[in-house]
What does this fold into?
Amino acid sequence: MKKLIGFGVIALSLAVAGSALAADGAATYKSKCSPCHGAEGQGSAMAPAFTKNAFVKDSKEADIAAVIKNGRSGAAKKYKNFAIDMPKQATLDDETVKAVVAHLKTLAAK
Ligand code: HEC
It folds into this structure.
């Protein structure tokens, strides 16, 4: 019985940690990404949308994370209709980038 209670506590704390991570992704998106990509990922005159975005939908987490961490500029730019670069997000740690990628995936699924 003691064992079962212990397992329950671990499962509960994992669930709480999981939701904290998701919340962090949304919060980081709101403060660092939404000014260009839109609050709901709808895009803007400055940057592409994430809703129905094939790159975000189909790419591996690591490939999306690389764009976020390194940015996209010069010859690497994909969208010629947006004059500015995707600025590299050097201040975000790996866990935060991971959480943001998960948030982008939810936006792309809309
Ligand atoms: C100053 C405006 C700006 C900010 C802030 C910004 N981006 Fe971008 N982002 C861009 C632009 C412009 C592009 C298009 C680059 C190109 O031409 O390939 C882009 C492209 C991307 C792409 C690739 C999309 C695709 O279809 O290939 C991803 C992923 C991305 N941004 C994620 C983020 C995330 C996550 C954040 C916040 C941490 C963020 N961006 C913040 C301007 C911005």
Q: What stands out?
A: The two ends are 44 Å apart (CA to CA). The pocket of heme C is lined by residues 32-33, 35-37, 46-48, 53, 55-56, 64, 67-68, 72, 77-79, 82, 84, 86-87, 89, 100, 104 (CB under 6 Å). The mean pLDDT is 87.
